[in-house]
Amino acid sequence: MSDYFIRSKNDVMYVSRIIDGELVPISSNGEIQFLRTEFWPLFKAKIEYDIGEKLAFIVLNDDKNGFEIDATINIAESFVTKIETLHTLIFENRIRDTEVISYPELKIDLESVASYSILEAADEESEKVAIENEEDNIQSFFRKKTRAIQRENKNVTGGK
């Protein structure tokens, strides 16, 4: 079972695997963004999942027509990742005018999502870079640094 985080922005898709609370971008031939029309065939070819394996998805979607999972993908009954971590990832990556969809369905209160990551968001907000191709790598770097500092100062455990 694996958890994935998908962002759809202006018919361009970005997908990451959620590993230990971090987003690890999936790329194909060095590209981390895919056209919506090509997304599912590339996703299924790239992740090399076993037939019958169950997957879970968090999707941030800006398309008014909605978002649909490919019919051949089996959806898990639950996420491997803790709900608090999923809330943090949603908070950190959500942009205006996007809907949050989850497979399997989670009851996500977007007002409460912010309460899980106030410290991390404040630290990372000052460090964000506008270059979208580098955003995932830079964001991940600073998130790890922030957590390391929090561990030193507050004896926080868990995560990377």
Structural account:
- With 160 residues, the chain is α/β, with parallel strands linked by helices.
- The chain has a domain of 110 residues.
- 34% of the residues lie in helices and 23% in strands.
- It contains five helices and seven strands; from the N terminus they run ββββαββαβααα.
- Strands 1, 2, 3, 4, 5, 6 and 7 form a seven-stranded mixed sheet that branches.
- The longest helix has 23 residues.
- The two termini are 20 Å apart.
Cα-based radius of gyration, to the nearest Å? 16 Å
Count of helical regions: 5
Query: Unreliable runs, pLDDT <50, ≥5 residues?
Result: 114-134
Averaged pLDDT, please? Answer: 78
Could you give the order of the helices and strands? EEEEHEEHEHHH
The counted number of beta strands is: 7
**Basic shape:** globular
Query: Major beta sheet, specifics?
Result: 7 strands, mixed
- The percent of residues in helical segments reads 25-40%
> Which secondary-structure class do the elements indicate?
alpha/beta
Question: What is the beta-strand fraction?
Answer: 15-25%
Give the terminus-to-terminus CA distance: 20 Å
